[in-house]
Design a protein that fits this description.
single chain, about 350 residues, alpha/beta, TIM Barrel, Chorismate Mutase Domain, subunit A, 2 domains, eight-stranded parallel β-sheet, about 10% strand, binds phosphoenolpyruvate, binds manganese (II) ion
Length: about 350
């Protein structure tokens, strides 16, 4: 019998909460952690990694099948649903045989369509809920592709997990959140709930709370958070794990928000602000059109003079000269750069069109 009903959880008032150690290390470690986790109000399932995909060999790679019985004991004793990571068909088979309540596919596996397909094939004919993490790097299509493969296997209950992205850029986070990517996923497949994994985004304890809060502010459906009874002694991801007691305090500190309701939707002020935003967007789009017309004039001029479309000094000047105004206007440098790059690319396309025309 399954203890875990996704539809009941999602229709409830509380966000979905899945917590537990990064890795299952021993019967005693799992038990002591689960005792604390089971006491957290609003806990829905215990996570525990049995097979740990580690970046480097000779790290703790999980207890594998040996840990299965420890998890199933907890399930029976505490009536706490259990969930673990699967990366191959064999993992799926073991978990199905042992009545796991749900499974997740990790970020490294999601990046590999062959592995995802192998898991999908092993899931055919079952209806266990599957959680799918975003791939390690910021590739929305790969994330969607993994979801589609699992859907095509006939799985009806799928939840996406946002665990941040490895970008190579130095950042405060272990994995950059790039919130626009889960937002794009929601826009593309609105029926798939998304929960946030603040642990793998933050990489360190002090950043967990703001990341968990932000996920709620963006309307995500819950969290998967790593918790260990003695975090400093954890064999993997020690710096980001917190005790069940600290997790309970973290959850209690979160401000929950509602997406919207008829009262807020009919609020006069909100509608007024939205109208102003609509008007500003219209003006911006019209101005961008005018900017592109000028770019076309420049394109015609450059064609006549036989000079290149792209000019590095001019592009550098544009990037630098707009920074102060951007800052004064309260724009982040990251946004301004993305915006200018998009405009510059479009401007080049307009100039190219003129250059390649027959006249
Ligand atoms: C994990 O959840 O412990 C894990 C390995 O996560 P990810 O796949 O997000 O790196
Ligand atoms: Mn981990």
């Amino acid at each position: 019998m399954t203890l875990f009903s996704l539809s009941t959880i999602l229709s409830g008032q509380q966000p979905m909460l899945i917590a537990g150690p990064c890795g299952v290390e021993s019967r005693q470690q799992l038990r002591q952690t689960a005792e604390g986790i089971a006491k957290i109000p609003g806990i829905h399932a215990l996570r525990g990694g049995l097979w740990k995909p580690r970046t480097r060999p000779n790290s703790f790679e999980g207890m594998g099948e040996a840990g299965v019985a420890w998890m199933t004991e907890i399930r029976e004793e505490f009536q706490l649903p259990i969930i673990t990571e699967v990366a191959r068909a064999q993992h799926v088979e073991i978990c199905l045989k042992n009545n796991f309540d749900a499974l997740w596919i990790g970020a490294r596996t999601v990046a590999n369509p062959f592995s995802v397909q192998e898991i999908a094939d092993a899931l055919k004919g079952t209806n266990i809920p599957i959680f799918i993490k975003n791939p390690i790097h910021a590739d929305l299509a790969l994330w969607i592709g993994a979801i589609e493969r699992i859907q095509n296997a006939g799985i009806g209950e799928i939840v996406a997990i946002h665990r941040g992205f490895s970008t190579g850029a130095p950042t405060l986070y272990r994995n950059q959140p790039l919130w626009e990517i889960p937002i794009a996923l929601k826009t593309t497949i609105p029926e798939i709930p998304i929960i946030c994994d603040p642990s793998h985004i933050a990489g360190k304890r002090e950043l967990l709370q703001p990341v968990a809060q932000k996920a709620m502010d963006l309307g995500m459906n819950g969290w998967m958070i790593e918790s260990h009874f003695a975090p400093d002694e954890a064999l993997s991801d020690a710096q980001q794990q917190i005790t069940p007691e600290a997790l309970q305090a973290l959850i209690a500190s979160i401000t929950l928000r509602i997406e919207s309701d008829s009262e807020t939707e009919n609020c006069v002020e909100l509608n007024q602000w939205r109208k102003s935003i609509d008007e500003i967007d219209q003006e911006i789009i019209q101005l961008l059109g005018e900017r592109m017309k000028i770019a076309e004039e420049i394109g015609a001029f450059k064609k006549e003079k036989g000079i290149t479309i792209f000019s590095l000094p001019r592009w550098k000047e544009i990037l630098e000269s707009r920074q102060d105004l951007g800052e004064q206007s309260g724009l982040t440098l990251r946004f301004l750069k993305t915006y200018l790059e998009a405009i510059h690319a479009e401007s080049i396309r307009h100039q190219e069109r003129v250059m390649n025309s027959k006249e």
